[in-house]
Fold this sequence. Notes:
This protein is α/β, with parallel strands linked by helices and about 350 residues long.
Amino acid sequence: MQDITAFIEQMPKAELHMHIEGVLEPELKLQMAARNGIDLPHDSVDDPAAMYDFDDLPTFLDARYEGDTVLITETDFYDLGMAYYSTVVHENLVYAEIFFDPQAHTTRGVEFSTVIEGLHRAQVDAEQQLGIESHLIMCFLRDLSAESAHEALEQAAPYRDWIIGVGLDSDEHRNPPAKFADVFAAAAAEGYRLTMHCDVDQENSVTHIWQAIDDIGVERIDHGVNALDERALIREFASRRIGQTVCPISNRYVVGESRSRDIKQMLDEGMRPTVNSDDPAYFRGYMNDNLAVAQRDGDLSAEEVGQLMRNAFAMSWTTDSRKRAHLAALDDYLAASTGVDGD
Length: 343
């Protein structure tokens, strides 16, 4: 009889909520700092917890943006991308939609082209060498101005074919979705797919989720567990098949619990939750770790874990033919994995 750990590890996977800047492991951060001549507060990886020390969203963002400072050249962004792909290929991840934050770099004087050309080159190599399909989602930083977001959208124009969608991340406090309504409308008019972070237990969480799905018209909400706070939202998410990209381990860091019981409730309510790693180097857990936490803390059956992954492939933004192929491979695996110990 296959145990639940092996079932999770061997299952083909899709990830829809992962920030590429968030895969900067301490060793890679120090390596890039050395080659780019950047001094860091920490010069050793003896204690990664000290290097990435935070306990809520603002302090996490401080650590993340400090890490961004070592990313300077196209090679840095290529290496960052390949660090992710070379890790997750061993977790049977076959598809990823990857957030990147161009404003976090262009505001430091790094050219938009430097960022995306390095990331795109890693995508091409990962598909050819590792068999991992991926797409890029450009996130606007919500604690910057809407005008800055428009500038990022303009800078992305020459690379339109390399970017599948746009999102919104960073500090949600006093930065509601409505602040970015115009730039999201412009992005939608150019054919970008739309998603948006609504972080866990933020001020006005429910109001922000309503804005995102009604005023902005997003297809997915990143995090989004506070949709469970209002029955009308639960009905909207279920009837309109709006997805949620939940990140259990990052939830433990930011709000003190994985919120995996919320994932189970979402499944029971007919919603479309998925499990993802968010910023895995900072939160010390990639996809298999997050699925294991969700399964254990949420008391999920193997069938429910499989449904989480079906949701991810089904709501992905790849082509219909690729989506069918990924879902068929997953269904074959699930059909063969009967009698999993841990249900």
